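Notes, p. 3: input format for complexes.
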Amino acid sequence: MYLRLENLSKIFTSRDGGREVRAVDGVNLAIERGDFVTLLGPSGCGKTTTLRLIAGFEFPSQGRIVLDGRDIADEPPNKRDMAMVFQSYAIFPHLSVFENIAYGLKIKKIGGAQLRKQVGQALEMTELTGLENRQPNQLSGGQQQRVALARCLVMQPKVLLFDEPLSNLDAKLRVQMRSEIRRIQQDLGITSVYVTHDQDEAMALSDKIVVMSGGRIQQVGSAVEIYRRPANRFVADFIGRANFLPVSVRGREANGWRVGLAGIELVVDGAPAANFAVGSQALLLVRPESMRLRQQGEGRLTGRVERTAYLGSLAEYDVEMAGQRVAAVRYDPGESDLYPVGAQVGVELIEENLYLIPA
Ligand SMILES: Nc1ncnc2c1ncn2[C@@H]1O[C@H](COP(=O)(O)OP(=O)(O)OP(=O)(O)O)[C@@H](O)[C@H]1O
Ligand SMILES: [Mg+2]
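Output follows (359 residues plus magnesium ion):
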């Protein structure tokens, strides 16, 4: 493992009341060389604090940070061979693009042809070539963020850290910049830890996503794993949209759990850590797109449309079904897929996309 967080905790004590905040609480995480890992979670869950511990801007209350076999938890930031891209860009307003990017190299006493070569490469990678003599106030937000990235890349760090680097950009630029970050990261094979609360960004960028809540890791997995096989209700709810239908566990089959729902039986995949007892209650995770509305009389379940919204590429529904209100989405709907409010409908669940989690 290239970068390892071992039982890492950070406790802040506020000066006024002396109340303790466990911003990071017993985090264990193993990151492989070249991985792009994203810390994802709601505001206040400890993402930034974890990143700042890795960078050395904070020191842990407990635990170890091991980089390439060496415990670095007590080392200052400039000894860690890491570079961080901030949300606020943090570029020097009085220096040109070239000077901003060259700044760190000069501190390291790198100059002359070597400096020009490395800055040139960083400019090229971030597609800033030609803008090197501009001042930051002559750049767009996206270009400023590229300067911030180039300034990190030029140092050839072992680990690149990002704290919500795209959240000041408009939606379109954000999508463009995130694919550029991914391209550069893959070209260089540079180990990266990225913080965001935007799940689309996390899913589009990452090899591995770390879902956090209350200073703790809830799940580590690929985008597919955390979306399709969430470890618990928190993860299921935080990633995408989720309906949770109470079901009774009827038995274990070779291909999953047999559960009862509103008079029918389904066989569904389930969380491996949970050993569902036969006869117990559990929650069936049903994503809105796994619910297909049909003409009345078709489908194994029935419901009543309570709300609809036609958005062109998709149609949204709220449906009263099995005693609760559930959300359904139909992508690329034809006119025969549109149902008005009040319509009695049949409902088919896409069984292979359902997932059982503990109640
Ligand atoms: N220097 C500090 N002193 C006291 N408490 C702090 C300090 N820094 C962070 N905290 C607290 O630690 C918790 C985690 O904060 P952190 O900034 O890591 O959250 P985050 O996940 O990055 O949130 P956001 O998405 O809002 O940026 C919060 O409750 C926060 O108030
Ligand atoms: Mg933060």
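The longest strand covers residues 20-31.
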